[in-house]
UniProtKB/TrEMBL annotation:
Keyword Repeat attached: no
Positions of transmembrane segments: 104-120, 127-148, 154-178, 190-209, 229-248, 335-358, 378-396, 403-422, 434-450, 462-484, 490-512
Organism annotation: Ogataea parapolymorpha (strain ATCC 26012 / BCRC 20466 / JCM 22074 / NRRL Y-7560 / DL-1)
Protein's name according to its UniProt entry: Major facilitator superfamily (MFS) profile domain-containing protein
Record keywords: Membrane, Transmembrane, Transmembrane helix, Transport
Organism lineage: Eukaryota, Fungi, Dikarya, Ascomycota, Saccharomycotina
Length: 520
């Protein structure tokens, strides 16, 4: 076989020469260069980085990263779950009716998505990765100790702000170290989302039924400590994870980020360090990267210009332009953001109105607080296995990420419409478990797909924008519920169920299939 026959068409002549001379390992996989086509030099360098990562293979470092980054998923879901669990008892104690604390929590998540997502592309993945959990736990402890709704809202907002970018950073960090052969694990890692929800739900089940007041008529703090205990224990778990990240795992900056900002020497050193630690081969040299040339972008990290605000805004605009650099990337980015927008509003609104609909038709899905939390814990536990099954399905021939998402969305729509026939607590347990299982098949793929098809220079920005889309739309669900429950209309559940089904069509229209190409 000649060099030309075994070298992907997009690989540069320099790279082909390196391969021919034995400096670069033979790799048959093709990179998704369409997302970096505006910078051919960066595409060549990413090809070399991917080759080095594949050459090193899967190590104990990757296994630890799977767990420690995966727990970031847990924290993100825990913050949403804890607020929804304790809201009623916080409102009882502080005498509020409108869910202002829930809206404030969404505001924190939205701002956090922007800050940490954009920040990951500005200052690097490592600092964001290491600091977010520590800040989340600190503010979570303070939220649990507040004595008024106003101060509670402040620290809930700060805790959610700190956790809000975990998804953006965790998926990016794990993906940028992951060999192509194991890229399906990026989908499986979403199982940690269910772990987080189950953990918080179990905490709420343990504390809220036993240490909470029963109504707003008389609810002093002395008989309403359950929501505080839930916050304290949850924050302690997050703190333990943050300390593990800082002192046990000790993340090095990802090579793909370093190359995307012109720090080639550090990228090579980090990969060589990883190879040495686990006695693996790494053929990549600094000379190989330098032979590719200099990346065309003059936008590196914000710190190079002393954190000048104008420069930071210029870099952010540049990263946003990268997401829409041509027609195929604009189409891909737009469909991804639309997917997150739709799932953010439809799923939460459906669940809010579902129980109103069931009750109005003579159903009783929760005769006691114990039954409600039992069913919720069971459903969240079953949901853990959705991404694991998705990780298997995406490997099937002619299926991949896109059609797995389509299957998950359409199956969820069918289950949700069937859910409207439930009239008993046991039926609620069964349908809610099935719903969490199938929606997490969709979620798991969407979480993984989003960073996989985004260019490295703007990966954090793109994931951050996706999270903003989901959380801005999700922020309307408490308002919709507040005003909609008075009318008793069932229209929202049918509309939202249809929107979830439409995600199956959107998934099939996505232009990239990461199961066939390596992410750059």
């Amino acid at each position: 076989m000649t060099t030309e026959e075994k070298t992907p068409a997009h690989v540069s002549q320099d790279a082909a020469t390196s391969l021919e001379s034995g400096l670069m390992p033979e790799i048959s996989k093709v990179d998704n260069v369409a997302v970096e086509k505006k910078d051919a030099v960066l595409s060549k360098k990413m090809y070399l980085i991917n080759n080095a990562i594949d050459e090193i293979g899967f190590t104990w470092y990757h296994a630890k990263l799977f767990c420690i980054a995966g727990y970031g998923y847990s924290v993100d879901s825990q913050m949403e779950m804890i607020q929804s669990s304790v809201h009623k008892y916080v409102a009882y104690q502080f005498g509020t009716a409108f869910p202002i604390d829930t809206e404030i929590a969404y505001a924190g998540l939205i701002i956090g998505s922007i800050f940490w997502g954009f920040g990951g592309d500005l200052i690097g993945r490592r600092l964001c990765f290491n600091s977010s959990l520590l800040l989340t736990s600190m503010f979570g402890f303070l939220a649990g100790g507040m004595s008024s709704m106003s101060t509670y809202c402040i620290f809930v907002a700060l805790a959610n702000f700190s956790a809000g970018g975990n998804l953006a950073m965790d998926v990016a960090v794990f993906l940028e170290y992951l060999p192509f052969k194991y890229q399906y694990l990026n989908t499986v890692m979403a199982a940690w989302w269910g772990v987080g929800q189950t953990t918080t739900n179990l905490l709420a089940w343990a504390f809220l039924p036993n240490f909470s007041c029963s109504s707003a008529d008389y609810c002093p703090s002395s008989i309403n400590r359950g929501w505080r205990y839930t916050w304290y224990v949850n924050s302690a778990i997050v703190l333990a994870s943050g300390l593990l990240r800082l002192f046990w795992f000790k993340l090095d900056e990802t090579p793909k980020f370093l190359v995307s900002v012109g720090r080639d020497a550090e990228a090579v050193e980090n990969l060589q360090k990883l190879a040495r630690k686990y006695n693996r081969k790494c053929s990549l040299t600094l000379e190989q990267l330098q032979e590719c040339g200099d990346i065309s972008s003059e936008y590196y990290t914000a710190s190079e210009d002393g954190w000048d605000p104008k420069k930071i805004l210029s870099i952010v605009r540049h990263h946003c332009k990268i997401l829409y650099q041509d027609k195929i990337n604009a189409w891909s980015t737009s469909l991804i953001l639309l997917s997150w927008l739709f799932i953010g509003i439809s799923y939460s609104v459906f669940y809010n109105f579902l129980y109103i609909y069931i009750a109005s038709h003579g159903g009783d899905t929760g005769s006691s607080t114990y039954i409600v939390y039992r069913n919720s814990s069971l459903a969240n536990f079953v949901g853990i296995f959705g991404p694991i099954v998705a990780g298997y399905i995406i490997l099937l021939p002619r299926v991949g990420r896109r059609y797995t998402m389509s299957f998950g969305a359409l199956a969820t729509m069918a289950i949700l419409f069937g859910y409207t026939t439930v009239r008993t607590a046991s039926g609620d347990a069964g349908f809610s478990s099935a719903t969490y299982f199938f929606i997490n098949i969709y979620y798991g793929c969407l979480y993984a797909y989003t960073p996989e098809v985004l260019p490295a220079q703007a990966r954090g920005t793109g994931v951050g924008l996706a999270l903003v889309a989901a959380r801005v739309s999700g922020a309307f669900s408490p308002v919709t519920y507040w005003y909609g429950q008075k009318s008793g209309s069932s229209i929202p559940i049918w509309v939202c169920g249809g929107i979830i089904g439409s995600l199956g069509i959107i998934s099939a229209l996505l232009p990239f299939e990461p199961s066939k190409q390596r992410s750059v």
